[in-house]
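Is S-adenosylmethionine placement plausible here? Inputs below.
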Amino acid sequence: MNDNLNNFPHKPVMVEEVLYYLQLRQGYTIIDCTVGSGGHATKIIDKIKSDGLLIGIDKDMEILQIAKQNLSNTGGIFRLYHANYSDIDEVLRQAGINRVNGVLLDLGVSSMQLDRADRGFSFYKDGPLDMRMDRLNGITAKKLIKKLSERELEKLLRKYGEERLAKRIATAIINEERKFGITSTTHLAAIVEHAVSKGKGKIHPATKVFQALRIAVNEELGNLEIFLDKIHNYMYAGARIVIISFHSLEDRIVKNKFAESAKQNLFRIITKKPVTPGKSEIENNIRCRSAKLRSAERI
Ligand SMILES: C[S@@+](CC[C@H](N)C(=O)[O-])C[C@H]1O[C@@H](n2cnc3c(N)ncnc32)[C@H](O)[C@@H]1O
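Reply from A.M.:
I modeled the complex. Tokens:
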């Protein structure tokens, strides 16, 4: 299983910026809430050294196995938790920790998830319509589509995909589902392509539909809001939080919650505008092109 995953390496995004905004020091306790395969966490451990502690959370059990291998090579101290970061209170309770010196969230999907056909995230690779980051919990995209009415699917595509052609696409998906059943990722992609009858644009016509379903399946926006409402309780004064988001819906939530927390004198906003990757990073890793980093400091 791990060899399999190792065939799809994930390049951590905006590493220099993450380290800069976290203002790491030796001995710090840092929580990486989306540890993935440990790309950022490895670099964090380099800075906090072996008298620091890295707590890593991920809802993907398989990826955590890779994180464990990678972090074991650092010589640093770390603890990994298979959990949803919205349950941060429970994780820290289990870890016996009240407060941390820094928090990282690198939202979105790991390449180890996206590039594996059997995870069902990619419209380029034929696989089951799954899309769950946590394969032990929740309902698959296939079950979600089965459950929704045409109107509900249209709303979902509009809300989470900001898809202008939501109505037309929802009708096509539900018709196909009822007549034949939608069997796979490429089947769904073909239905969308046919429904919007677009020529070759810059992005695949199913991009927004896949984004919307993925957000819904993993309850991504709800988890982020729950987390942002409570994380201040677990940060020392002066501790930094860094969040990298990959689409405007997430970035808006981060921006608004930071602003709310600043009004309540809980956070000082460090990045007035989001920080984006440099040209050379984008050239080396096209997936980072939509990344936006925001940071705030606990007052
Ligand atoms: C972009 S990847 C992180 C990559 C990581 N920073 C690295 O450098 O290897 C995002 C990770 O967050 C995890 N994730 C997404 N939502 C989560 C949630 N609500 N709770 C815990 N983990 C989550 C995903 O399973 C995925 O592994």
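Short version: The mean pLDDT is 95.
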